[in-house]
Specification:
Chains A, B: This is 3-methyl-2-oxobutanoate dehydrogenase (2-methylpropanoyl-transferring). Chains A, B: It is an enzyme of class 1 (oxidoreductase). Chains A, B: Its EC number is 1.2.4.4. Chains A, B: One of its GO terms (molecular function) is oxidoreductase activity. Chains A, B: It holds the Pfam family Transket_pyr. The complex is a heterotetramer, with two copies of chain A (343 residues) and two copies of chain C (389 residues). Chain A is of the alpha/beta class. In chain A, 33% of the residues lie in helices and 19% in strands. In chain A, strands 3-2-4-5-7-6-12 form a seven-stranded mixed sheet, sandwiched between helices. In chain A, strands 9-11-10-13-14 form a five-stranded mixed sheet, sandwiched between helices. In chain A, helix 1 runs parallel beside helix 7. The longest helix of chain A is centred in the first third of the chain and has 15 residues. Chain C has 13 helices and eight strands. In chain C, helix 2 packs parallel to helix 9 and helix 7 packs parallel to helix 8. Chain C is globular and about 70 Å long. Classes of the chains: A alpha/beta (343), C alpha/beta (389). Chains C and D meet through strand 1, helix 8, helix 9 and helix 10 of C and strand 1, helix 8, helix 9 and helix 10 of D. The structure holds thiamine diphosphate (TPP) (2 copies) and magnesium ion (MG) (2 copies). One thiamine diphosphate sits at the interface of chains D and A.
Chain lengths: 343, 343, 389, 389
Amino acid sequence: MTPTAATARKPATMAQALTRALRDALAEDPTVHVMGEDVGTLGGVFRVTDGLTAEFGEDRCTDTPLAEAGILGTAVGMAMYGLRPVVEMQFDAFAYPAFEQLVSHVAKMRNRTRGALPMPLTIRIPYGGGIGGVEHHSDASEAYYLATPGLQVVTPATVEDAYGLLRAAIASDDPVVFLEPKRLYWSKADWSPEAPGEVPPLGRAAVRRRGADATLITYGPSLPVCLEAAEAARAEGWDLEVVDLRSLMPFDDETVCASVRCTGRAVVVHESSGFGGPGGEIAARITERCFHHLEAPVLRVAGFDIPYPPPMLERHHLPGVDRILDTVARLQWESDWTEGRGV
Amino acid sequence: MTPTAATARKPATMAQALTRALRDALAEDPTVHVMGEDVGTLGGVFRVTDGLTAEFGEDRCTDTPLAEAGILGTAVGMAMYGLRPVVEMQFDAFAYPAFEQLVSHVAKMRNRTRGALPMPLTIRIPYGGGIGGVEHHSDASEAYYLATPGLQVVTPATVEDAYGLLRAAIASDDPVVFLEPKRLYWSKADWSPEAPGEVPPLGRAAVRRRGADATLITYGPSLPVCLEAAEAARAEGWDLEVVDLRSLMPFDDETVCASVRCTGRAVVVHESSGFGGPGGEIAARITERCFHHLEAPVLRVAGFDIPYPPPMLERHHLPGVDRILDTVARLQWESDWTEGRGV
Amino acid sequence: MTVLEQPGSSRRKGELPGPPPAWHPRVAPAPLLPDAEPHRVLGTDAARQLDAALLKRLYVQLVRGRRYNTQATALTRQGRLAVYPSSTGQEACQVAAALALQERDWLFPSYRDTLAAVARGLDPVEALTLLRGDWHTGYDPRACRIAPLCTPLATQLPHAVGLAHAARLKGDDVVALALVGDGGTSEGDFHEALNFAAVWQAPVVFLVQNNGFAISVPLAKQTAAPSLAHKAVGYGMPGRLVDGNDAPAVHGVLTEAVRRAREGGGPTLVEAITYRVEAHTNADDATRYRTADEVETWQAHDPIALMERELTARGLLTDDFAAETRDGAEEMAADLRERMHQDPPLDPDDLFTHVYAERTSQLRQQSDQLRAELAAAAATDEPAQEARP
Amino acid sequence: MTVLEQPGSSRRKGELPGPPPAWHPRVAPAPLLPDAEPHRVLGTDAARQLDAALLKRLYVQLVRGRRYNTQATALTRQGRLAVYPSSTGQEACQVAAALALQERDWLFPSYRDTLAAVARGLDPVEALTLLRGDWHTGYDPRACRIAPLCTPLATQLPHAVGLAHAARLKGDDVVALALVGDGGTSEGDFHEALNFAAVWQAPVVFLVQNNGFAISVPLAKQTAAPSLAHKAVGYGMPGRLVDGNDAPAVHGVLTEAVRRAREGGGPTLVEAITYRVEAHTNADDATRYRTADEVETWQAHDPIALMERELTARGLLTDDFAAETRDGAEEMAADLRERMHQDPPLDPDDLFTHVYAERTSQLRQQSDQLRAELAAAAATDEPAQEARP
Ligand SMILES: Cc1ncc(C[n+]2csc(CCOP(=O)(O)OP(=O)(O)O)c2C)c(N)n1
Ligand SMILES: Cc1ncc(C[n+]2csc(CCOP(=O)(O)OP(=O)(O)O)c2C)c(N)n1
Ligand SMILES: [Mg+2]
Ligand SMILES: [Mg+2]
């Protein structure tokens, strides 16, 4: 399609693209219902649901009582009756009260009923740090969802993907934990709601930058950091490939392994704590599949194994360009590399 | 100590050793309090708290109302006042309602208060499958706890460890998620409560069997299966080492890496689903530390990436001897091994 | 109670800018506030107000229900059920819940409520798949409008609210009736569900079967409230207290609550006082926490005996009807016994079929792996791969 | 309300084996059942019953409290606080909560209740560490008996119950007072905490500051109950409703509840009706969900103005006292402003210090890594490692 006046791409934020995705989903499918704390009159604390109640009414975009288990639990019941609820959890850590409903019902209902009761729910969770949020407002909680079979876990890193992946999540007949990198809400790109781009299938990673020497594997809030690191690396003579997973479950082994088999070296980058975090899974499955292509072990750059720190210290915790490059430097580039840095 | 009549080791079950550990802790430390659903009059659904209320009174071993968040939340308050609560969650999946209290308070309180409010809590959770339990009664939920900095995660696999590790957990000034492999409750060993063995420090793995060819790394309910597999492997000419982690956090990198550096091959075995499960973390950290000692990638034998299946099908889900040996066989024993089994 | 001051005694009366505005609901107020006295104990005269046909239907279901309970318990001893939480003694609640609903309504049972599902017409074998260790839900919930038996306590209550709300949004006059135990009322999900129901005025009825125990924990350790029906007050919905062994009374209260819900009157909380005559499940030992005396006292208040007295008083319990009822129950039990003695067909590959709408590549690999293992085991004529606990 | 049948009208009277036994508490019954009429709106005459010294103390704290609120809000504009949830308009609740407690008692504040902590004597700078973006709790909770400011709503309520219960087990006559908002009452943790408190008869007082909103959500979308105090009924504890802008009234109700708790009378639920005059936090835009009119109406019912009228009526508001109070408040504000403009000392290595009592080997490695990074950055004279969002 050639851009016309109507489809011309103007700078749009990720938050705007998300709003548009919700709006279009509500307009196209009468079974879609948005619900959560402050999503109505206020338009959500991040304004992602702005204007939806005005356009579609309180029954389609509903301010609920303040109780996350109740929100998700009633959404389960609505899905049982054939609706397609899109639930907003106000912040990452405030999704925890709904954990039982998520793990014991949302993730298991289809399986429990041998397909009779699918759960076409989307659970939107603003996640991650870097916005100076006080405790409970910056958790990168994806590890919990990854360890829960039955859930899909999706996270956009670009404005275009924010629209496309959210549309795909809402259209999916299976539950999606849709993790919105909150510090990218205000990130901008040229994008037009009139030509929003294709709705990508869930479960496909994207190579965001081609490179020959090593692969950075990342997602969500860490993508811009990795791209910046790759740019900086060029100055030091490294040519880095950057893979944006987009969907953590289903996991795109194919794209990831194809990249690592070419480069022979990989670093996984994410904000959430390293121990027990997604990086372990990713590194392990790459190693299982590409062992003889690896010149060095798959390394990880992750948040430390600590509770999310206060804003004044968070910059030390979050993966940054320098830490990524330091790690790339440890990928055994010299041929006479020997082990033994200890445990 | 030479065994006398009093200390002679007689067959005891893991459940009995756990009961004894609780009893001794209650007797020695007046700040220890046991609480949970049915832990009093009934002695718990697995009878692990049997006799404690009779001996120590309702205030020390308390039947609570039926509300897991309330149980853990009140225990947090009790710990704030200097008590040392030992909470029982009746089954793995019934700990989920307490998830928010666990993640947002139990794990973070010490850090939040810069050491002023430690959380010397022990949270006992019977976990795992293999007992023919209907859904919600067989979850291997350790991945959730591992991904939560601030928690210690401990699981015994032997009768002696059941006593020792539970004593160590209760004595710890930090919270311990104490996972009791429920299908080993009735496993027996010669053990005497009068000479219960040393209380081991938390965070130390144990080599349960020496072997030269490959290391099986496991914990809790899968230890007996791994030992049986190692026995069976001998018939096929393999000499397998078996490491029992005992504590998943803190993680004993030293013992694990020492073993893998000797054998050059490793398989991680656990019941919980593979994707996002503990095996990924373990395999990744071994690879990071022992890359050039590895003859083959670290492989995993884990539960499938599915909700825990119904009893009639669970035997297909749980790691068994054959599946472990099949995996050992895939550790690239032939020198002409080539990759390419595809993604 | 110490009242520091009586309302209206302020000398500032008139100076205040009217009642605090935030106190006034900012949207249309909920149409229902609890009655000044929010609960009533319903007596046992309801039977005389019911028509004979309904009374007889209740009786037939009670007798079948008791037989179903004893048969299911027997099946646990024969190794044909993994576990059975009996509702013996609670049949009046189970049956009345089933019969108070129209076909288009939904029932939300807990793990103890297979009988309610069966009394609604569900095939007992399908009701028991979960408890026999086969797939969790042996029926299509949408086809029979019975939600899956719910094990995590009280978590099904918000589902009932959401479903009832969704139905109303769609314009369907469907009511949801959700069952929960006395113990389950302590869970946060109970609270959140009732609150959502009241705020949304959802057409849902909550039936608490207060059988006195949550496994071993007696009611007095569960709550300090004067009754569980009193909890309705805190949500702004009506609360009803009823003799849970009196089937016509339970039926009457539920029918009224269902009618009210259907007419847009919003949710009701009903507490039915009953007793769990058997142990918690066949795996439980109830002698550890209660006396035989207590059980006997309750057996003297047996729902079937109560009903028979009532039917006799009304001249409805003819020998023929009694025999016919008994025979019908025996037939059901024989059929159940026989069919439960057949092993259900099992396909291990089903493990991977319904995790998602489509298998992920990971699940396809795992399914291939299992298939290969089973084939290898079959080829070597050995038993299939097994966990060896 | 449709009552199908009145209690006692059963013709079976006498035939029943007494009231169902499980219905009788199996342990000693809770000493307190809710009053027949469980709530009272307390008027605003409480002031005249308080002694002059206490009245003046309340006033001094109200004025300081308001000044603290405006100063903290100003600090957000100066970038010295990351965020501030103001309690302007709610000072009567905050101050009365602090003053109703003895030194040995514990306060459990929510994230909005820094003022209550300050009114209890906590250094404002220490109260504000969380909100300035420094360590979460800037004080030793055991030393000042103030639990950490709690952000996840209602999760602090079970802590208060547990602590109060533990104190009673130890034989200490300590009372816990926990604060929660109207929105927080919808959470499951609220329900579970109140239930545990009532069953255990724990010495705890729950104060709901009903300020009409949970961020943008008005009370009418939060509950259909006639009042939040009515929720007490469902737990078997007394509920009290009080004008939350009337400091003497709130103080009176809380003091009575604390006394009752201390004497073994168990928990009380108090609802104080007040209003959040400012937006939810400085980051919020309240014009999106409420009118200026509404705010003005409430400003006419301002807690400080109410108090001044009362003091004037009793001849206590002398010019000297007024000036002294104002000056004290200004001094506090100046000191706060000055000290908040100094950057707190920060040691990145503290990230690893209190995760556990002792650092794990993993944390030692990570700490070494960070130290090395910082040293390298310092050596190259570049800014330290930073996330580049
Ligand atoms: C969330 C949760 N916690 C614990 C359990 C374990 N459990 C199963 S039944 C039961 C007692 C239930 O008591 P009640 O609600 O009174 O129902 P009843 O068994 O009397 O029918 C318990 C604690 C559970 N199923 N779910
Ligand atoms: C469990 C949880 N969910 C959501 C939030 C986000 N949040 C912070 S304050 C707030 C509104 C609280 O309203 P209320 O309880 O009435 O207290 P108020 O702000 O009026 O003092 C919300 C939804 C939270 N802090 N915790
Ligand atoms: Mg019960
Ligand atoms: Mg409020």
